[in-house]
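Case study 2.
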Amino acid sequence: MKRSTVLTVVSVAAIVPLALLAISINENKAEQQAINAVPQIKKFESRSSEWGKYYQRQYDTYKQTRKSDQITDMLQDNPALVVMWAGYGFSKDYNAPRGHFYMLEDNINTLRTGGPVDAITGPMPTACWTCKSTDVPRLIDEIGELDYFTGKWARHGSEIANPVGCGDCHDNETMKLTITRDFLKRGLDAEGSLKAAEATHQDMRSLVCAQCHSEYYFKKTEWTDKNGEKKTAGVVTFPWDNGFSVEAMEKYYDDISFVDWTHKVSKTPMLKAQHPGYEIYKTGAHGLNNVACADCHMPYVREGGVKYSSHNVGSPLDHMANTCLNCHSEEEKAFKDRVARKLERKTELNKTAMDVIAKAHLEAAKAWELGATEAEMKDILQDIRHAQWRWDYSIASHGSFFHAPEETLRILGSAINKGQDARVKLRAVLAKYNAGEYAAPDFSTKEKAQAVIGLPYQKLVDEKMTFLNGLRKEWIEQQNKKGLYDPKAWEDMVFNTSYKPSESAEK
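Prediction:
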């Protein structure tokens, strides 16, 4: 082979990889530029697929939350919950939370939202949509916050079409993280340690989560509409005036005599903790060191030359290389084993608390049945109220033990103490009425527990199926006409619940 030929071959061999490298670099640069560019997305765009046209990688990871589709019936696993929530929606149906993709569908399918037949029927208020859909900020902007929070849940069914997504956390023009629910701003102002207007980017990587992963109640607010008609709104409100601790919020509710519901069997004026994830997170090592929610639940990932935040929101233990092990110098297996050992302590205390509180409710019901007076029961009911509030606060945030293990164990311990205080006092009352040896009825299964509290389970299921086969389908038709419904987002969606329709409902 001639020397010139050899040189040519060598040159080509050297140039080709360099050319491919240059092309790859340019492609990555182009992609990065596209990611950094400000796309044209309309204000209050609720369809995440429209945002995904500009941010495909983020949208693809968001869609992965569909994989967390398993239904875990928490009432089946923990029948004491049925007794503890007697008279409240959670005694009907309560499943472990699934991925963000399912938030709206699960809200629609749950027995808790009932089987409304029109816009003014059903057990739940409009506020129950608030953290389930990107359509909520748009709707509030259109009709006003007080109007939005007025009426029954079914009133807004035709307007709520898309699950939580891009528009809940991002400004459509700048793509910056933004607070889309004003009640968080009011809550922060009331607590005082951080003003929304002064929040850093790192703060915002937690605050966009705090919009929904926080404790709240529906504050009755009187207002007058444009026609002069007086109405009452149930406005989502964070009880942070006294601080983030369980005792601070307990005092807030006691001071205003707030009651979520009156317990069906014990007659206790109850509190229902929602999901105080942000509050408990603030008391733990991660929160105190300004590790953001997104650092662990939405970690940065790199593909080639592109770095972006994963929107497959889930447990940090699922992606440890990009989460826990960035800070913890430990082997993955050893770390998981240590977390599991710690979790056993919480699980043990949780089961003890549930058993104690459920029995306190049933023993209180027996005391009432035997003729106990309000004076005899006053302090007992307060102990039950505080016991269950503290238990619920420590459990309802789901990730509480991971966020703040010491605080979670402390709160669970205080819940058990309060519950036992109630039972000691109840024993004295029962003895007075010659029932000192009374034993609570068996609630060892979901079915037995629901029978104990007199819950008409199958009737509720039939009502729900009537709704799903009727009014729910009308909503989808209306959403399609309004251009709200995104059929691509719901492709291959499988109806999945903890209940099964009866033969009569299916027909």
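The chain has 22 helices and six strands.
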